[in-house]
């Protein structure tokens, strides 16, 4: 599917409703029709879910600042047949209670829906404690997780419905950084821009980095693919896109730890000699200045200018 890329002026126009707003609205509305649904909080967003807690006090549980207990409670609810939605900032949802995710969810063979906010550096003003760019890579060490990384608030409802309707473990990674236009959220990679047939390769943009990728690659003769769902990884879709290009070169642009999906790209193209360049949050830089999200994005080379420079170097004839 081909979709018109955003213009420079559109990239500066961000949605007024945040992904977090849409998450609360979609989840609250779901209570009316889904008796399985339960929400488990550790103070974060408790005020936003207060109306739901007043109506369904037995299915909206706030355990206080006890993230390990939050996940443990979710595992217990799942064992009773409920579909728990567990929510907090990324490091408090994935890193701090990781053992509970491994045991209370994974080892017990039950499902839950994890919904994070803060992404890699949205909460940069709060310091390193509120940053977790390694979250998707960490969940990759556990089997069976489905991972959604929406790039626009309008993509969130469909991804949440997919998560609510399933039974396995799902992670939905929300961000304050968004693209200007929503994209398709169906299974697989979606072609945003096709190459000429003699194009230099494929750029795979994940979630909220798409606008920066489109602006950065400019008039380079490359195919651009987009996905808000990184697990399961669409190995067939990537292999087909690479097969249509003149060169089997892939630039992977992810809004979290650089190279998180590089092994998936390698597996998808194991029968094809290829090159991979991974862009994302640096594995080598520990940023100690708080800064703004935009400053962090630039420091990690995820702004349009840096992506463009990297693409021109990588895809150079």
From TrEMBL:
The lineage of its organism: Bacteria, Bacillati, Actinomycetota, Actinomycetes, Pseudonocardiales. Residues 17-182 form the Transketolase-like pyrimidine-binding domain. Transmembrane segments: none annotated. This is Transketolase. SMART domains: Transket_pyr. Signal peptide: none annotated. It holds the Pfam family Transket_pyr.
């Amino acid at each position: 599917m081909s979709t018109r890329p955003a213009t420079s002026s559109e990239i500066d126009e961000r949605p007024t409703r945040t992904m977090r707003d849409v998450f609360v609205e979609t989840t609250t509305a779901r209570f009316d029709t889904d008796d399985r649904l339960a929400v488990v909080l550790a103070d974060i967003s408790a005020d936003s879910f207060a109306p739901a807690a007043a109506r369904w006090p037995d299915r909206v549980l706030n355990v206080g600042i006890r993230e390990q207990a939050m996940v443990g409670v979710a595992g217990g609810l799942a064992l009773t047949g409920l579909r728990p939605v567990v929510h907090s900032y990324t490091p408090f949802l994935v890193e701090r209670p990781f053992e509970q995710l491994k045991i209370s969810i994974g080892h017990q063979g039950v499902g839950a829906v994890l919904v994070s906010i803060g992404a890699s550096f949205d909460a940069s003003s709060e310091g390193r404690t509120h940053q977790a760019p390694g979250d998707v890579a960490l969940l990759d060490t556990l089997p069976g997780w489905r991972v959604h990384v929406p790039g626009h608030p309008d993509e969130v409802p469909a991804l949440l419905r997919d998560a609510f309707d399933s039974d396995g473990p799902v992670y939905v990674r929300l961000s304050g950084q968004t693209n200007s236009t929503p994209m398709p959220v169906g299974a697989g990679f979606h072609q945003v821009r096709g190459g000429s047939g003699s194009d230099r390769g494929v750029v795979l943009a994940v979630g909220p980095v798409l606008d920066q990728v489109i602006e950065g690659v400019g008039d380079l003769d490359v195919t651009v693919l987009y996905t808000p769902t990184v697990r399961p990884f669409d190995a067939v879709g990537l292999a087909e896109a690479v097969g249509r290009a003149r060169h089997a070169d892939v630039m992977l642009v992810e809004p979290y730890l650089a190279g998180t999906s590089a092994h998936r790209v390698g597996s998808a193209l194991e029968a094809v000699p290829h090159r991979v360049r991974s862009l994302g949050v640096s594995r080598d830089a520990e940023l100690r200045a708080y800064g703004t999200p935009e400053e962090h994005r630039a420091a990690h080379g995820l702004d349009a200018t840096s992506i463009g420079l990297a693409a021109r170097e990588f895809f150079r004839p």
